Amino acid sequence: MPNILNVAIVGCGIGTSHAVAYRNLPDHYRIAAICDIDTAKARAFAETHEIPRVIGNLDELCAIEDIDIIDICTPPHLHLPQALQVLAAGKHAVVEKPLAGSIRDADELIAAEAASGKRLMPIFQYRWGHGLQKLKHLIDSGIAGRPYLSTVETAWRRRAAYYDVPWRGKWATERGGALLGHAIHAHDMLTYTLGPIRSVFCRATTLVNAIEVEDTAAVALEMADGSLATLSVTLGSAAEITRHRFCFSGLVAESNTRPYSNSGEPWIFTADTPEISEQIDAALASFTPLPEGYVGQLLRFHQALHEGGELPVTLTDARASLELVTALYDSTRRGIAVPLPITPDHPLYSDWLPVEA
What we know:
By secondary structure, the chain is α/β, with parallel strands linked by helices. Helices cover about 35% and strands about 25% of the residues. β11 and β12 form a beta hairpin. α4 runs parallel beside α5 and α5 runs antiparallel to α11. The termini are far apart.
């Protein structure tokens, strides 16, 4: 039986999804504590998820010797200082998206992880859906061929009540809008599949709600492999969908359109020729499914901690997602195409917040 790791969750919001995932891996993890400044909420959370300890502050949590992992599920502006504190305390860290509020912050975390001797894993749980994993399998098998065009749609609905939570919709605490928070998973699925981006051109604005940050965007990308891609994002769609469509020389891959689980099956793979169709069928017959979503990522995390090797999602992966966000904000503000990578001398490397924020 694998060694069971003791984990503490910080934050009772999205932390609920993390708790459910850990409890689905009882041979790998034990939730030893829940930490939240709202101790009444934390006590209710502990009762629901059968967690033995309720902690009111991160300082106290970091001092508990038998905690192996601290899972940070707090508002975005807290991720950097809390992750640094966890690493300094000699614990492994899991950090919800977005990892941090700038590329500089990501680089600080990369350095801190290296110095600590511990591991920090950002969350991108959408990667592990069986539909997307089948596409990766076909690409790795050489069947997909050369990429031509990819389209990504994130069309969700957020009404005014969603922004009643005090930290949402504000630059200082949410650090960004739909491009940073809501569509970041769908955009990570693109780069997870095709690799780096060469340049971006973005139009982003606020149309749906009376908030500081953007809720609608249209983006054109040139990928490093020479293919093209488009991203469309809105929080004003009465019919909520997330959709990916990849056109390769050998096949077209189309996701389902479920808004919050479109990386899962079914995906449709349409071959360019009957011969390629046979290759697809043969390759997919050898596909071995592993758990999806948070369970899939946390299972792979446990394996990496005990066996060594690369984490299922790395700080470099999360840095790339923040680099894309930085380029998108730069492009929409200046009305120009912005090349990647973003280097430390770029004006938004340290902070992408608008001057007036």
